[in-house]
Specification:
2 domains, single chain, 8 helices, globular, about 190 residues
Length: about 190
């Protein structure tokens, strides 16, 4: 409520951050995930006294992922796949675009996906680590989007990860099964 000002509470994002930090240090995984999201926001975007620290966010996402949170595994994997060529807010980045092997395509009704000079220092690409995180989220967490991203990764290949049509089909089937079971991506 402090983040949004809902419920008649005056919003105070710095205080909200401090509460997420305290809850995270107390072992609340959801608070750690939200704290990491705040730390990844552009510097100054959430107001004064709200820290910006993507490196700490990576540590928090990893901690919560290690504790079994598939969304944190997926989020960290996405950061590790995006690289330094693409804006951190971009969706649907192909491996070739993220590696700089082909120009970023401008899609209808989509903002420019190029990394802007005001974007913070990028997280280095690490497709192998991203693969491990996506596998954990897909297999242990039944996270359909992670399964889908693995299917794409194995279809195209990536740095250190060869294309593998059999794995691509396996993870596409897992994705389809989860979509049928749960009603869509989440």
């Amino acid at each position: 409520m402090l983040m949004t000002g809902k419920g008649g509470i005056q919003y105070d994002r710095a205080e909200a951050y401090r509460n997420f930090d305290r809850a995270c240090r107390g072992g609340h995984g959801g608070a750690c995930h939200l704290q990491a999201q705040i730390l990844c926001s552009p510097a100054g975007e959430l107001g004064p006294n709200v820290p910006h620290n993507p490196r700490k966010a990576i540590q928090l996402y990893q901690k919560v992922c290690d504790d079994g949170d598939s969304m944190s595994c997926f989020t960290l994997a996405s950061m590790l796949l995006r690289g330094d060529k693409v804006s951190k807010g971009a969706d649907n980045v192909t491996p070739e675009e993220a590696r700089g092997l082909k120009p970023l395509e401008k899609r209808t009704n989509e903002a420019d996906r190029s990394r802007r000079p005001d974007d913070t220092k990028p997280i280095p690409r690490d497709p192998k680590r991203a693969e491990e995180l996506l596998l954990r989220a897909c297999i242990n967490g039944s996270h359909a989007t992670s399964c889908h991203n693995l299917a794409v990764m194995y279809t195209h290949g990536d740095d250190g990860i060869p294309a593998d049509p059999l794995k691509a089909e396996e993870f596409q089937q897992k994705t389809d099964e989860m979509v049928r079971q749960f009603g869509g991506f989440f």
